[in-house]
């Protein structure tokens, strides 16, 4: 899942991004509304965690732009105000969910994951294919009943492959969904991660390389 965090309190923004990355999400961070508009014009995000009171361009206007563009991106709006009228106004603008500050990080993560599931074809909360069972919420992976410990990027790549339901996923698509914009697109990080993931999943290999196209399970 790829997430954009838009928050002008830099310490909070960076803390949220760090926490979501530990949950195997690819996260970009900006600190004002103008930068947010620039990013959503370039990258495809599953979820935008959007502070309402932003400098340069207000969070309401960023949300309106996402709606205007007809993007499948879901918006989780953050605000220091927890008044019902503010929540209603935010939802009427086009936000998909609303979370007042201060918030528990576990709740933020759960809401981001719930919104992320709504950006694509609905899938069961636990993904299963070829003897592999992946639970995104619990961050657990099993193969034939045996638990497998994966690093965040390995988990993210496996989740993308399972969500494709047998379709081929290109290296570029994996890079876009599992890494943030600071990753050099010309590195071999995808190939190395897939190799490590194959080794951890064991034999027989379930990740198939499709020459010239990508990978599938």
Model description:
The protein has 217 residues and is an alpha/beta fold. It folds into two domains: 2-117, 3-Layer(aba) Sandwich (Rossmann fold), CATH 3.40.50.2300; 127-216, Winged helix-like DNA-binding domain superfamily/Winged helix DNA-binding domain (Arc Repressor Mutant, subunit A, Orthogonal Bundle), CATH 1.10.10. It contains eight helices and eleven strands. The chain has helices spanning 10-22, 33-40, 59-68, 84-93, 105-117, 152-163, 171-178, 189-201, and strands at 2-6, 26-30, 47-51, 74-79, 97-100, 127-129, 132-135, 140-143, 146-147, 208-210, 214-216. The strands form three sheets. The chain has a five-stranded parallel β-sheet with strand order 2-1-3-4-5, sandwiched between helices. Strand 3, helix 3 and strand 4 form a beta-alpha-beta unit. Helix 6 crosses helix 8 (189-201). The longest helix has 13 residues, at 10-22. The relative contact order is 0.12.
Feature tags:
single chain; 217 residues; alpha/beta; Rossmann fold; Arc Repressor Mutant, subunit A; 2 domains; five-stranded parallel beta sheet; four-stranded antiparallel beta sheet; 8 helices; 11 strands; two-component regulatory system; phosphorelay response regulator activity; transcription regulation; DNA-binding; transcription
């Amino acid at each position: 899942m790829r997430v954009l965090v838009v928050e002008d309190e830099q310490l909070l923004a960076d803390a949220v991004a760090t926490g979501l990355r530990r949950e195997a999400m690819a996260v970009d961070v900006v600190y004002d509304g103008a930068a947010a508009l620039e990013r959503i014009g370039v990258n495809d995000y599953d979820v935008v965690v959007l502070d309402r009171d932003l400098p340069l361009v207000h969070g309401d206007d960023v949300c309106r732009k996402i709606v205007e563009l007809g993007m499948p991106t879901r918006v989780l709006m953050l605000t220091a105000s927890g008044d019902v009228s503010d929540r209603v106004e935010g939802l009427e603008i086009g936000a998909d969910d609303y979370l007042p500050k201060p918030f528990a990080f576990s709740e933020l993560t759960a809401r981001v994951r719930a919104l992320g599931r709504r950006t694509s074809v609905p899938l069961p909360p636990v993904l299963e294919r070829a003897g592999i069972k992946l639970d995104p919420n619990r961050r657990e992976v099993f193969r034939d009943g045996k638990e497998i410990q994966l690093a965040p990027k390995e988990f993210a790549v496996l989740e993308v492959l399972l969500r494709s339901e047998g379709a081929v996923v290109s290296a570029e698509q994996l890079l876009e969904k599992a890494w943030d914009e600071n990753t050099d697109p010309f590195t071999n990080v995808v190939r190395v991660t897939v190799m490590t993931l194959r080794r951890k999943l064991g034999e027989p290999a379930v990740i198939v390389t499709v020459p010239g196209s990508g990978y599938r399970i």
